[in-house]
## 1
Amino acid sequence: MQPVILFDGVCNFCDASVQFILERDRNETFLFASLQSDAGQKLLKEHDVSDDVDSMVLIEDGKVYYKSAAALRISRHLDGAWKLLYILILVPAPLRNMVYDLIAKNRFKWFGQKDSCMLPPPNVRRRFL
């Protein structure tokens, strides 16, 4: 199965992140599901992910990645120089996740949120579970 990115569907920052990935994933490596969707909930259960997870989650090759590990693993599949960000995986996870957690903690305050998940545009809808 293709790698799946689970994201918070009511978070504007998360939505912008998904749009960013879609624009730079010309090989269509990733599938997407919001954490709130039936498909997202099913994947969380299948992979024993806590119900209260609020970070981006990557499921790749049967393994689950959270926070900065997920973001960096995603970056290595993107077009252009974004692949180079993967070198940050060498930074200890606690340090990487401090930055990730700071953004995650403030994402609604800084970027706002929606009342419901976005409806993907028709040209990419097939990539959403």
Note: The longest strand covers residues 4-7.
## 2
Amino acid sequence: MNIFSKLAISAGMSLLLAAGVAQAQNKTFNIWWFELPDTPQSKAWTKALGELKAKHPDVTVNFELKTFEQLQKAGSLILNSDQAPDVLEYNKGNATAGLVASQGLLTPLDDQFKSRGWDKILNDNSTQLSKYDANGIYGSGPIIGIPAYAEFVSVFYNIDLFQANGVKVPTTLDEFEAALATFKQKGITPLSLGTVDSNGQHLLYTLALTQADDTWVNNYQGLKVPLDTKPFLFAAKKIVDWVSKGYISKDSTGLKGTGGADNLFSSGKAPMFISGTWNNGNFASSIKNFKWSQFVFPTPKYTVGSTGNLFVVPKGSKNKDLAYEFIDLALGKENQNEQANLGGVAIAADPAAVKDELGKRNVELFSNISGKGGLGLYPDWPVPGYYELLIQATTGLVTGSTTPEQFAERIKKPYDDAQAAQ
């Protein structure tokens, strides 16, 4: 080999090396979630993202905050395009994660689940909403997402207003309605509500679960039989009754739960607000003028709630190894303890390491719910498009444009159509 050949090879290797370095330097890891910045989840995941950056200084980490509604409405289109990130938070359930899983848009995670030790952190109960069959029905099939927290709907209440008006924490539905009546007699609208987003349907499903047993919940969430509307009809009648008695304001139809009804509670104007643990961070930082706490709505067994939304890896992810590494960090004991001590419902925290009062309360309440198998999941999960339908139908109950019977009929047909198609 002559000197010119050696120089050419050397130059070629240098170009390849330079190209490789440039490629590494230009590598971008894209991650999305929709938890608001003040939530324990977002704070803990931001810390995990910082750890990932420190481990990979050659990688540009690009985080984007999305909204729940963005992904609810356009998830399939986004995941089926070159705009999909490397990993993102996605809503669990048949109508969302199940739908895109059935379309082949997500990466199966079974191998990673075992090789990375996630199976030592999450048990079968924790991963029932991570698995979807070919029809997108939860509970079996490949693992397509990993939860890193839990959540449940409870009643946030103003301790000061309860004490000032002689109201005790109710333990039955009758006692709850008596509390509503007491506040109304004192000129206080007792229940803050927003029907523009999921808040209204969480109240609806909470009331339906007062009439539900194991068979009904399993049939409803699993699309196993045509819809038995009796629990929903009961709930719809209660909402109409509560509006007529002034327990709920008709102005609720113009409010969101987040950024609307929650503000009525945190400002001290409403003594109660039925919503999820995603409010904890906001309330912990914004409520300064009164004492507040939570109690689980009195039902025989079931509470609206589940393990948290899933971290999913799109089929087209360009940096799957980094996506798996981020999930490692989010599931790690240090990050889980961090989340709990910020007031979150961590799925794998060490109870002895949780010192935060709010975090301890959430761990205790969630343990009581999950310990009796009482996670009733969410009402919009069984059928694609049910989220929007339930918002519209629940709003109709509050405005008076929809009767409880019309409500039940309206939600039955799409459910039965989806069930028959299985």
Note: The chain has two domains: 28-150+307-371, 151-306+376-420.
## 3
Amino acid sequence: MRRVITYGTFDLLHYGHIRLLQRCKEQGDYLVVALSTDEFNAGKGKESFFSYTDRKNMLEAIRYVDLVIPEETWDQKEADVDRFHIDTFVMGDDWTGEFDFLKGRCEVVYLPRTPEISTTRIKNDLASQPR
């Protein structure tokens, strides 16, 4: 069984997220999603619209996702790869090269993003709408 892991906040879940998760699952048989906690996001200066619990529940309802774990620090990736016996680490290509340090532990794949959609774009579009 090939195990795959990806990381993200997955706020305002949209078709770009779904497409990424689908393509992650195509890399193997079992997909682990490490979901940024609210506390970790706060440390990055980010605030999600949906709580960690709500985002986790949404991800768990997606058929491509087998397991959701909390992402609590930047430094947990090596331990996660070992703990969950990961064969392939997958991220969007906006992170190209950032996780190459994992190549001694697993395959590292950077997938193209869905260019016309992003959570940031949705938030900006909503903020610019007249009330």
Note: Strands lie at 3-8, 30-36, 67-71, 88-92, 107-111.
## 4
Amino acid sequence: MKNKSLSFWLFLGPVLISLCVVVLVPLIYGFIFSFTDWTGLKGSNFIGLENYVDLFKDKEFLQSIWFTTKFAVVAIILLNVIGLGLALLVTRKLKSSNFLRTIFFMPNLIGGLILGFIWQFIFINVFDGVGKLLHMEWLSGWLSTTETGFWGLIILTVWQWAGYIMIIYIAYLEGVPQELIEAAEMDGANSFQRFRNVTFPLIRPAFTVCLFLTLSHSFKMYDQNLSLTAGGPFNSTQMVAMEIYKTAFNENLMAFAQSKAVIFFIIVAGIGLTQVYFNKKKEVDL
């Protein structure tokens, strides 16, 4: 028993140390610095809650929170609906199921910055060419307005992440006992009723996981936002992560940016943990 305990801590120890050094210590230091006037170029002085009072007067920060929230709501819904739909499609024992799984998952292998530049080319050059060819004016000038920039980010995110979410749903769908599906079919339940009353309750743990992943990813997204719209036009498509980065490194207001990051962390953690709590209560055991 002692040998097992020793080997356990030998394997776990480096991970815990790394976690503390990379995550926990910076988190504590960042929280402390948020109560100072540190700019990254000079020493810091304690100023209390001044940064937190000022950030709620920062219109650009509040606008980025509103834009990020709208983006997150739409992205979460579409990612889970499309991801689950793809999972249901490729678990129907089609001959091309393995091929389709690979195709749907492949966009997730492309880096965020590269993906943003690829879709920027599509939205600006390809859409503009097709719009002129087919006389569809609404295809021209994509990413030049807040609305098209918003939907451009949504399309990019769904295209990249839907396959990843699909994989998680597949893992749970393949674990659903077929006897229950067959019993419901014998009782006269149609396809929708079987999915709603049998399949979905059994894969709800996957829904909890996917909801948490899509929520955290949507709120924290930075690289795709940078490469696709760079927050334009006039910072109207700027998400919170980009706004905090600009505050810290463009304006050299490190402590002020850290106070924004603390508030942002509280918001995302609060929403994420709340949805996990309520979804866990609705899960059923096989």
Note: The mean pLDDT is 90.
